[in-house]
Amino acid sequence: MVGTGAIARGSHLPALRAPAAEQPLEIVAAVDVGAASAEAFCADAGTGRPYTDLGLMLAEQRPGLVTLGTPPRFHRDQTITALRAGAWVWCEKPPCSSLEDFDAIEAAEGPEHGGPYAAIVFQHRFGSGSDHVRALLAEQAMGRPLVARCQTTWYRDEAYYSVPWRGRWSTEGGGPAMGHGIHQMDLMLDLLGPWPEIRAMAGRLVHDVETEHVSTALVRFENGTMATIVNSVLSPAEVSRIRIDCERATVGLTHLHGHRNADWRITPAPGVSPELASAWQDFGADVPSSHEAQPRGLLADLRAGRRPRSSGADGRTSLELVAALYKAAFTGNTVRAGGIGPGDPYYSALHGDAPGWAPEPAEAGA
Predict the structure, then answer these.
(1) How much is the pLDDT for 238?
(2) Omega of the bond leading into 176 within 30 degrees of 0 (cis)
(3) What is the pLDDT of residues 332-365, one digit of tens each?
(4) Distances in whole angstroms, Cα of residue 25 to Cα of each of 3, 18, 124
(5) Residue ranges of region Disordered (predicted)?
(6) Cβ(119)–Cβ(308) below 8 Å
(7) Same domain for 95 and 234?
(8) Do 152 and 283 fall within a single domain?
(9) If you average pLDDT over every residue of the chain, what do you get?
């Protein structure tokens, strides 16, 4: 486990302890730049050896899986280091600071059959609720999806941004589109599939930071669905929502940081039989969308040597949407999927060197 802060203690450790009771799995090490933090983590967890050097840990322990709970600016180098040592990686979101970084990570993965691979923590697309709705949409049981809404409206005050690395492109990677709303956008993409175009706006309205405080976007999907996206850190009544209006029903999800079956609602259109509407409501056993839901599949894939979900092209899609959202917002142009590649300023940095948005040159150099 690399990074022994709150996300490692509160999410990654419990997520791995659950499957450890069912299969061969041992936490062998914890790595942190602070020796005291790594030592305290191992003592509290009752397992593992503390390290302050990732390379030394990889050489001595040769783990099969490395989890990353470090700030985004370290993800590229740490993921590549682990992959080259033969370890699979489970990396906390956001995956890295740019599409260029993501492509470098994918290039460091092993062969298509066997790995090692690097997967991103996108736990909202896992769990019984999202599994059930994904299946209904895939078979068009409720008819074609037509209209969608993706909302992450949270609240962050001055104290939040007083932490030096927050609100800066070089350290946080982006604003709420990147660090907060990426979870709901990833779930929307997982449910609705590919998108060909996006238009967007972004603004700084309150805090004195580099990144945006709010963004809105319009997205057209290949299946014809037209969607709106709102990401905000200026909203005191915090909520996360997804809504998809299909021909014969509306699917709605309302939660904050994780969902259960009870957080989903399916409202049938007039004329739908009670029997059919009742079948749509059968979500099965309740498996919450926590960090615990994703590792079970990841570990099964690791043992089988097959590419896991939220890795490779499947993991890149959400970062590409974020990059396209920023480009559309900062240029005022419609951006098309697949259009951001080498040579495009938004490929190497999400701010795209846009006037008024990119860091000052001296700070960027620092």
Answers:
(1) 98
(2) no
(3) 999 999 999 999 999 999 999 999 999 987 544 4
(4) 19, 10, 24
(5) 287-314
(6) yes
(7) no
(8) yes
(9) 95
Q: What's the pLDDT at 22?
A: 85
One domain for residues 64 and 133: no
69, 39: one domain: yes
- Domain edge (last residue) among 255, 288, 321: 288
Q: Examine the domain organization and report whether 119 and 177 are in the same domain.
A: no
pTM: 0.95
Tell me if 49 is assigned to some domain: yes
SS (H, E, C) the chain: CECCCHHHHHHHHHHHHHHHCCCCCCCCEEECCCHHHHHHHHHHHCCCEEECCHHHHHHHHCCCEEEECCCHHHHHHHHHHHHHCCCEEEECCCCCCCHHHHHHHHHCCCCCCCCCCEEECCHHHCCHHHHHHHHHHHCCCCCCEEEEEEEEEEECCHHHHCCCCCCCHHHHCCCHHHHCCHHHHHHHHHHHCCCCEEEEEEECCCCCCCCCCEEEEEEECCCCCEEEEEEECEEEEEEEEEEEEECCEEEEEEECCCCCHHHEEEEECCCCCHHHHHHHCCCCCCCCCCCCHHHHHHHHHHHHCCCCCCEHHHHHHHHHHHHHHHHHHHHCCCEECCCCCCCCHHHHCCCCCCCCCCCCHHHHHC
Tally of domains in the chain:
2
Summarize the confidence of residues 55-83 as an average pLDDT. Answer: 97
Q: Residue 134: pLDDT above 70?
A: yes
Domain of 87?
Answer: 6-123+294-311
